[in-house]
Amino acid sequence: MNKFIFGLFFGFTAAISHAAPAHLHGQAELTVVVDEGALSISLESPLDNLLGFERLPRNDAERQRVRAMAISLRAAANLFVSDVAAQCSLSSVSLHAALPPELLGNSVSPTTSTPSTNTEHAELVADYVFSCHTIANLRQIEVGLFKVFPRLKRLVVQTAGPAGQTVQRLTPSASRVVLEP
Ligand SMILES: [Zn+2]
Hints:
alpha+beta; 6 helices; 6-stranded mixed beta sheet; binds zinc ion; disordered N terminus; single chain
């Protein structure tokens, strides 16, 4: 097997297996799954891209930044714009990060664990589910994350749908996910 073929094979396998997502500041991963009637989008990002720090907030100003981030992440209409003809509407958003749940807008349950205070890096996962009346009309999704979070420079997108799987790379100047029918 020559090096070129091996490189292709390895790259493909790594992309699909999602085994070891690199924690690179400026980069995040997006998974887009088109299913019958539903569009699921999952964002996995270093907190630095969204917040500018990766630890618990230390003062009121930082707590306010966490609240503002959560509000921006929950405003899905600004982040993901799908074809009008697909008639998609947001069903749910959930945010997962080692930050105080009340700042993320999550309901606090008695089992909520205390966030760790001494991690060097931290990530946030945001899961979105949209229900779409005519999902066959869904051809593309304009991603607004770069405008809302300017520290984000690159987005690696994996899509899965009826036509199969793709890996796409978005930047602030090319921020559209293409979904082939
Ligand atoms: Zn980090």
